[in-house]
From TrEMBL:
InterPro entries documented for this protein: Rieske_2Fe-2S (IPR017941), Rieske_2Fe-2S_sf (IPR036922), Rieske_Fe-S_prot (IPR014349), Rieske_Fe-S_prot_C (IPR005805), TAT_signal (IPR006311), TAT_signal_bac_arc (IPR019546)
Alphabetized UniProt keyword annotations: 2Fe-2S, Disulfide bond, Iron, Iron-sulfur, Metal-binding, Molybdenum
CDD domains per record: Rieske_cytochrome_bc1
Protein name according to UniProt: Ubiquinol-cytochrome c reductase iron-sulfur subunit
Segments forming a coiled coil: none
One Gene Ontology molecular-function label: metal ion binding
Organism: Campylobacter aviculae
Cofactor annotation: [2Fe-2S] cluster
One Gene Ontology CC term in the entry: membrane
Location of the Rieske domain: 92-153
Length: 166
C-alpha cells in the first residue's frame, strides 16, 4: 500500500510541475505578443529638420499613416502663443492634417491663409483653430519634442506638455 501512495504522490507532483512550467512558458509567450515589434516602435518616431523651411511654406509629411501639416508662419500670419511651436525665433503650426469633423484632409489656401475641408466646408486658420463650418474642435496637435532645429514627432517633450496644460 505504501508504494501505491508514494507512486500516486509522485504522479501528482510530476503533473503539477509540468503544468507550472507550461503555464510559465505560456505567460512569457503572451507577454511577447503584447509588446510592439521593434519596427513598429521605430515607425512611431519621425524627425523633421525645420531649418530649410521658408516663411509661409507648408510641408506635409506622414507620421503613423496620418498627414502632418507643418506651416512656417510669415509676418502676415497671426501668432497663437497657445498653439504655435517656436524654433529658432520662428513660429510653426504643426497639426495632424485630418478634419476633426469627419476625418477629411483639408487643403491649404495660401491666398486666404486657411485650411479648408472640401467635404462640408469646414475652415481652420493658420494655427489650426476651427473658424467656420461643422468641425467641433481645432486640428489636433501630435506629440512632439524639439531638438535644436529638429522636430521629433511621436515623443512628448516639455514644449508639448506645456502646450497641452494650457
Amino acid at each position: 500500500m505504501a508504494t501505491s501512495e508514494s507512486r500516486r504522490s509522485f504522479m501528482g507532483f510530476a503533473f503539477g510541475t509540468v503544468a507550472a512550467v507550461g503555464g510559465a512558458f505560456s505567460l512569457v509567450a503572451m507577454k511577447k505578443t503584447w509588446d510592439p515589434l521593434p519596427s513598429v516602435k521605430a515607425a512611431g518616431f519621425t524627425t523633421v529638420d525645420l531649418s530649410g523651411m521658408q516663411a509661409g511654406e507648408l510641408r506635409t509629411i506622414e507620421w503613423r499613416k496620418k498627414p502632418i501639416f507643418i506651416l512656417k508662419k510669415d509676418a502676415n500670419m497671426a501668432k497663437d502663443t497657445k498653439r504655435d511651436i517656436v524654433v529658432d525665433n520662428a513660429a510653426y503650426t504643426v497639426v495632424i492634417g485630418l478634419c476633426t469633423h469627419l476625418g477629411c484632409i483639408p487643403a491649404y489656401h495660401p491666398s486666404e491663409q486657411i485650411f479648408k475641408c472640401a467635404c462640408h466646408g469646414g475652415e481652420f486658420d493658420t494655427s489650426g483653430k476651427n473658424i467656420f463650418g461643422p468641425p467641433p474642435r481645432p486640428l489636433d496637435i501630435p506629440p512632439f519634442k524639439i531638438e535644436g532645429t529638429k522636430l521629433v514627432l511621436g515623443e512628448e517633450g516639455p514644449e508639448y506638455k506645456k502646450m497641452m496644460e494650457a
